[in-house]
Design a protein that fits this description.
The complex is a heterodimer.
Chain A lengths: L10 E5 L4 H14 L7 H12 L4 E3 L2 E5 L10 E11 L9 E8 L6 H12 L4 H6 L4 H7 L6
Parallel strand pairs in A: 1-4, 3-5
Antiparallel strand pairs in A: 2-3, 4-5
Helix pairs in contact in A: 1-2
Chain B lengths: L1 E6 L5 H16 L4 E6 L3 H4 L5 E4 L4 H4 L5 E4 L6 H12 L1
Helix pairs in contact in B: 1-4
The chains are: A alpha/beta, B alpha/beta.
Protein name (chain B): PTS system IIB component (L-Asc family)
Keywords (chain B): Transferase
GO molecular function, one term (chain B): protein-N(PI)-phosphohistidine-sugar phosphotransferase activity
C-alpha cells in the first residue's frame, strides 16, 4: 500500500509554533512547498478543528491535520512538522502535540490505501517519539519508510 | 454486523480508525465490514449500524442512536480498540 509522497520539502524539523493554529499553518505550508496543496489548504485544515474540536490529535503527541478533498488539494501528499516546544490543541488525553502530520488527499474514494499505509507506520508505538526527536529530514523519511533519494 | 467510524471529514482519522478496527476485529476472530464516514452523514450511514467508533468530540453530534457508541482515545492503540470492541461484542 503506497504512502502518499513525503519529499524533503514537506518536512519541517524543530519548528516553533505559538499555538495549534500556527502549528497547523506550518503543516499546510509544508504541503504547499511540496506541491501537494495550495496555500489555502492550511486554512481549511484549521477550520476543520474549529468546527469539530481537537479530534485530529489521534494519539499521544500526534496530530493528523487534514481537510476534505477539494480544489485546494493538488495531489496526494504528506507533510511532517516536528515542534521544539509542544503545543496544546485542547485534547483531553493526547496533548501536547510534538508531531503534526499533514495529509492532503485528492480523491475521496481512493484514500483508504494511503491512510492504511500511514496507520501501519504508527502502529509501532515508538514512531511518534522517534519522529519527535529526529534531527534531519532524511531521518524522518527513514522512520516513515520513504527512501531519501 | 455493520460498524461505522465517524470523524469530521470522513478521511484521515475515520480512515485510520477503520483500518485499525478491522485489524483488531480480525485478531478477535470477528468478520465485519467497517465504513468510514463524516459526521454530516452519520444519520444515514449509521442508521443500521451496530457499533459507531469515534472520537469524544463527535459523541454529542451523533446524538440518539441504537448503535453502541465507542469512544477511542488513541487511534493507533490496537489493544485499546481490541478491548473496547470485545466489551461491546462480547
Amino acid at each position: 500500500m503506497p504512502l502518499p509522497p513525503l519529499p524533503q520539502s514537506a518536512i519541517d524539523i524543530g519548528a516553533s509554533a505559538a499555538d495549534w493554529r500556527a502549528a497547523v499553518a506550518l503543516s499546510g505550508a509544508a504541503l504547499a512547498r511540496s506541491g501537494a496543496a495550495k496555500p489555502g489548504y492550511a486554512g481549511e485544515m484549521i477550520r476543520m478543528i474549529e468546527d469539530h474540536g481537537p479530534y485530529v490529535v489521534i494519539a499521544p503527541g500526534l496530530a493528523l491535520a487534514h481537510a476534505r478533498p477539494g480544489p485546494q488539494v493538488i495531489t496526494n501528499g504528506l507533510s511532517i512538522v516536528t515542534l521544539t516546544e509542544p503545543v496544546s490543541f485542547g485534547h483531553a488525553h493526547n496533548d501536547p502535540v510534538r508531531v503534526v502530520l499533514g495529509l492532503a488527499i485528492a480523491e475521496g474514494g481512493a484514500h483508504l490505501a494511503a491512510v492504511a499505509a500511514v496507520a501501519n507506520i504508527f502502529n509501532d508505538s515508538s514512531a511518534i517519539d522517534r519522529l519527535a526527536s529526529a534531527t534531519s529530514a532524511e531521518e524522518v523519511q527513514q522512520i516513515m519508510g520513504v527512501s531519501s533519494s | 454486523m455493520k460498524i461505522v467510524t465517524i470523524c469530521g471529514a470522513g478521511i484521515g482519522s475515520s480512515g485510520v480508525l477503520k483500518v485499525n478496527a478491522e485489524r483488531a476485529l480480525r485478531s478477535l476472530g470477528f468478520d465485519a465490514s467497517i465504513v468510514a464516514a463524516d459526521i454530516s452523514t452519520v444519520r444515514t450511514v449509521a442508521a443500521d449500524a451496530q457499533i459507531i467508533l469515534t472520537s469524544a468530540e463527535f459523541v454529542e453530534a451523533i446524538g440518539k442512536t441504537n448503535a453502541d457508541v465507542i469512544v477511542v482515545v488513541n487511534l493507533f492503540d490496537t489493544s485499546e480498540l481490541k478491548q473496547k470492541l470485545n466489551d461491546a461484542l462480547g
